[in-house]
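Homework help board

Subject: predicted structure for assignment chain

Our instructor gave us this sequence and asked us to write out the predicted structure in token form, then describe one feature. I got the tokens but I'm not sure how to describe them. Can anyone check?
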Amino acid sequence: MSAKTQHNNILLAVLGFIAVVVIVGVLGFFLLDRSPEIIQGEVEVSEYRVSSKVPGRILELRVKEGDYVHKGDTLAILDAPEVRAKRTQAQSAEDAAAAMSDLAQAGARQEQISGAYQLWQQAKAGLEIAKKSYERVQRLFDEGVMSAQKRDEALANYKALEAQEKAAKSQYDMAVNGARQQEKRAAQAQVNRARGAVQEVNSYIKETVQVSQVEGEVSNIYPKVGELVGTGSPIMSISIMNDLWGTFNVREDQLNGLKVGDSFTAFSPAFNKDVKMKVFYIKDQGSYAVWKATKANGQYDLKTFEVKARPEEAFDGLRPGMSLIIKK
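My token output:
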């Protein structure tokens, strides 16, 4: 084989290799770069957690997971004997305070009033006799028959009985009027305080019967019948099915100017159907979230944003955890 022939073969081989590289590059450009970029999201739902203000033992569960409940439905019943005992104590304290208040309002008994009146009348009678005796001694003293010593003794006795009569009158008035206004108000305040304690315990008693505050589906029940639950411990979770939305983690360069209030179309694989959605929340996920350098040397980074959107129309059957796909 001549040198020229070998040179031509080598040239053909090089050209053939270059042609293959070019063809592969062209095919890769048209096939790989044209594949759609997918953003996958997930359906989420608002949840309401049922919990009690008081600790207790689960006596009965009226619902099970998957049940649909309405506002006002009984969900669970707790047994809390300690709270019932506190209600008895609070009720007794209220009764005692009410009795003391009634006593203060009623004043002294009729027998006490009558006794005070009799003592007053006795003091009045003694005062009248002392007054007459003093006046008689005074006339005799004026006539020079009675000594000054006797006149002074009669005057002192008269003044003493006068003070005694006033004291007896005060005791009688106090018996008639009863307790002072300050004492009556203090007694009523004790009643109000005890009544407030009863109301507080009654509110705790109501907590032993857990009633649904929302309408939705029971998604999780945590304790079993007979188990103890503490204050604020969750008993069950209720998914509010009429408050669904989709959550998407979108890289910054994929937002393309998306903002709150914009609409887009997502695909639901579970129903093989498109869903029209409207954005109501956009927030960056912080430096800890997934990021991507736009250039090999990391000139700047692309952050990931959390985007939430609700279906613009009711979509029957859509459930938490289902996937939503956005094709760019």
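Reply (TA_rk): Your tokens look well-formed. For the description, you could write something like this. Helices lie at 3-31, 81-106, 110-142, 148-177, 181-206. That's the kind of observation they're looking for.
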